Amino acid sequence: MTMDGILFDVDDTLVDTKGAFARALEAVRAEHLPHVPAERDPEILSHWRTDPGGFYSRYTRGEMDHVTQRRHRAALLHETFGAAPVTEKSFEAWDALFWGTFERSWTAHDDARAAIDAVVAAGLSVGVVTNAATELQERKLKMAGLGDLPVLVGVDTLGFGKPDPRVFLEGARRLGTEPSRTAYVGDEPTVDALAAHQASLTGVWLDRAGHRRGPGYGAHAQHGVALPGAAEPKAGESNAGGPKAAEPNAAEPNAAERNAAEPNAAQRAALAGDPQDPEALRAAGVMVIETLAQLPAALGYDTGRRN
User: Is the separation of the CB atoms in 119 and 126 below 8 Å?
Assistant: First the structure.
């Protein structure tokens, strides 16, 4: 396997976003859901990360803005756990507590810095492709001690995000590497790894211990993966106040890349079954690792030399 560059996801790949969400939601539970015992904090965290309403996926498709998706998720969280309804007025205080705690809790995963340094030492190009806004992720990486990583594509770059294949292709274009010689590493098996593989990159699922989503994950996250080429907002367009494209020139798939994006039988099986089944994902062409320390050996640059 020959790689010229590696693109990384940010949240729960490089930055411990799950841990930051946990602290933010613990604060919210104590203040706004006082009837819920602390023993249920893991349930609350799982509900938030699984996003059963699919609101974050709607944000990445340009259908709503970032704050609106968070307000809808807060409302569903309160409804699910029997708390008072979230109104526009009450959400202001809710979000100030949640987001303030979340931002103060950004830290890098223990293996992130060494993984980035190993990529650079191997002479490979490195960058970030993310489903959050570019400025937000730049701040997050800086606070986590990873501010030297360039955020090449955010959800606001093209006006939509992963799993659309154009996002990965644009990341490779900006990195200066051919998609077939570029790896994408992320913590979501479908939105990150399988979608990158279908876009003709090497898709790598980082299956961190204790970081899988709860039951129901994938119902909304797979939008655009099983049906590549499904209608998405065009570059420069945005629906209902969603992320607006900063630049309209997305890298369009060529014929070979469009064919590669069509899911084969193994990929369809991975999508139809448990989207977090490592064996099904391997059969679909995805690499699976459990820590970033395993990445050099998986991609073949563990000698510290370029392939």
Answer: yes
Q: Is the domain of 121 the same as that of 43?
A: no
Check whether residue 121 and residue 83 sit in a common domain: no
With respect to residue 227, please indicate whether it lies within any of the assigned structural domains: yes
| 250 contacts 242 by C-beta, under 8 angstroms | no
Which tokens belong to 111? 């293996």
Nearest by Cα to 192 from 235, 233, 221: 221
**Residue 276: inside a domain, yes or no?**
yes
What domain range includes position 45? 17-104
Q: What is the pTM of this model?
A: 0.84
Total count of domains within the chain = 2
Two tokens, residue 169: 């292709």
pLDDT per residue of the chain (307 residues) written in tens, 0 to 9 = 789 999 999 999 999 999 999 999 999 999 999 999 999 999 999 999 999 999 999 999 999 999 999 999 999 999 999 999 999 899 999 999 999 999 999 999 999 999 999 999 999 999 999 999 999 999 999 999 999 999 999 999 999 999 999 999 999 999 999 999 999 999 999 999 999 999 999 999 999 999 998 777 766 554 444 322 223 333 333 334 556 555 445 555 554 444 444 555 555 555 567 889 999 999 999 999 999 999 999 999 865 554 4
Cα–Cα distance for residue pair 139/146, rounded to 1 Å: 10
Whole-Å CA distances, 262 to 194, 224, 230: 11, 11, 11
Q: Are 252 and 258 in contact (CB under 8 A)?
A: no
Residue carrying structure tokens 């490779």: 172
Backbone angles phi, psi at 247, to 5 degrees: -135, 135
Instruction: Give domain status of residue 262, yes or no.
Output: yes
